[in-house]
Design goal:
With about 425 residues, the chain is α/β, with parallel strands linked by helices. It has 2 domains: about 5-145 and about 315-385, D-Maltodextrin-Binding Protein, domain 2 (3-Layer(aba) Sandwich); about 150-315 and about 390-425, Periplasmic binding protein-like II (D-Maltodextrin-Binding Protein, domain 2). It has 18 helices and 12 strands. Helix 8 crosses helix 17, helix 10 crosses helix 18 (about 415-425) and helix 17 (about 395-405) packs antiparallel against helix 18.
């Protein structure tokens, strides 16, 4: 049984300190080849893919004799491949680690290297943002991008539909949906085929419906008895009933190809998509001109819900962190430290690949929408880590499965809570 203290420490943030996450992998060979290191990441579109290839070459130039073998893959492919790698033990030397309950499991199994001393300078520079990747006050991964989830939208289509004010409440959002439909525009895309994009709606609705203390306690206690969780489902169910989504949304992938949820937004087929801070970079790789929506890109947070007890300024968030498994060569730690350097983080920001954690690079964020997210991130009084990561794979997976069924009209808000609690009771 995972301790309540450990789980709570992994999942609570306040005063703008983020507890966030991303996807994972690692290499546990005790006789690792010191001259060759493997690095997996999910920046499989340009400019991110090319940028990381150059970063690897620059690192090799500064470390003669070292060969960095880079594997760029679609996010979902990486998640699946890393899950298999954790089972087999055949793991990359540098990988993207998820925080929350998943990290605690990896640490308990002895799979992740403690970077507290080896990367002490980077830990100090990043500051409170490392909290999401600490277990028992030790740091096991260095977050390189932290952001929040909200609605990305096409400014041009909003103007075409006569929308002059961004929604603040759910009723406002329904008005936006009605206006977009009246203009023969599809309001929203969602990659429900990958489940987690649909689940984000329930997470965000719970953040607006539940007091902060209920959410933070649930991470430690795995108790979902508060009725605010079911009320969050009611909010999502009401949204689904407005029929705002793209045709075939139940099988639509999140980010792979022009017909994915992100691709539909990038190519002007829909007006909005609720996604994370990575969306501009993803969209750039899904359009022929490499610009995504460009200057048509806008963003607004998840609206307030009627009777909600959550702080309207609180945000749902996540991020990406580099980790090194036990048994990997020391040069893999050197690469992770380099990836958090002023130089690499500045290039990361300039390429609109995400929201950097190194304070020296935040001023390099050029995309206005991403710059807005930086302000929202830093001003948030509380940022809730994605539930599926905060609660761990078993509980989070059960939750996502049931939410996907709700989007298909085959489950109720009560079913979501019941399935989640059942998985939590088995976890305990």
């Amino acid at each position: 049984m995972r301790s309540k203290t450990r789980r709570a420490a992994l999942a609570v943030l306040s005063a703008g300190t983020l507890l966030l996450a991303a996807a994972c992998g690692g290499d546990d060979s005790s006789e690792a080849d010191e001259s060759t290191i493997t690095w997996w990441h999910n920046s499989n579109n340009e400019p991110g893919k090319g940028y990381y290839e150059q970063v690897a070459k620059d690192f090799e130039a500064d470390h003669p004799g070292v060969d960095v073998q880079v594997s760029a893959m679609a996010h979902e492919d990486m998640v699946d491949k890393l899950a298999a790698a954790f089972q087999s033990g055949d793991l990359p030397d540098v990988y993207m680690e998820r925080g929350g309950g998943e990290l605690a499991d990896h640490v308990e199994a002895g799979l992740v290297r403690d970077l507290s001393d080896d990367a002490a300078d980077e830990v100090e520079k990043i500051g409170g943002s490392v909290a999401g990747w600490q277990v028992d006050d030790k740091t096991y991964a260095l977050p390189f991008s932290l952001g929040v989830v909200g609605f990305w939208y096409n400014k041009e289509q909003f103007e075409q539909a006569g929308i002059t004010e961004l929604p603040i409440t759910m009723d406002d959002l329904y008005d936006v949906i009605d206006k977009l439909k009246a203009a023969d525009l599809t309001p929203l895309s969602v990659g429900a085929g990958d489940k987690w994009p649909a689940a984000h709606y329930w997470y965000a609705a719970a953040l607006r419906s539940c007091p902060e203390e209920v959410l933070t306690d649930a991470v430690g206690s795995l108790d979902f008895s508060d009725d605010c969780f079911e009320r969050a489902g009611d909010v999502v169910e009401e949204l689904i009933e407005t029929e705002p989504f793209n045709a075939g949304f139940l099988s639509t992938p999140a980010q792979e190809g022009a017909t994915s949820a992100s691709g539909l937004l990038a190519t002007g087929k829909v007006a909005m998509e609720m996604q994370g801070h990575w969306e501009p970079g993803v969209m750039q790789g899904l359009t022929d001109d490499g610009k995504g929506l460009g200057d048509k890109t806008g963003w607004f947070p998840f609206p307030e819900v009627d009777g909600g007890e959550g702080d309207p300024a609180a945000q749902l968030g996540g991020g990406d962190a580099w980790a090194v498994p036990e048994g990997s060569p020391d040069v893999a730690v050197d690469l992770v430290r380099y990836l958090l350097s002023d130089e690499v983080q500045t290039g990361f920001a300039e390429n609109d690949m995400g929201l950097p954690t190194n304070p020296a690079a935040t001023g390099a964020v050029s995309d206005p929408a991403l710059a807005q997210l930086l302000e929202v991130r830093d001003a948030a009084p509380f940022v809730q880590l994605y539930f599926d990561t905060a609660f761990g794979e078993s509980v989070g997976g059960a939750m996502n499965d049931e939410i996907a069924l709700m989007f298909a009209g085959k489950a109720s808000p009560d079913d979501v809570v019941s399935a989640t609690q059942q998985a939590a009771d088995e976890e305990k």
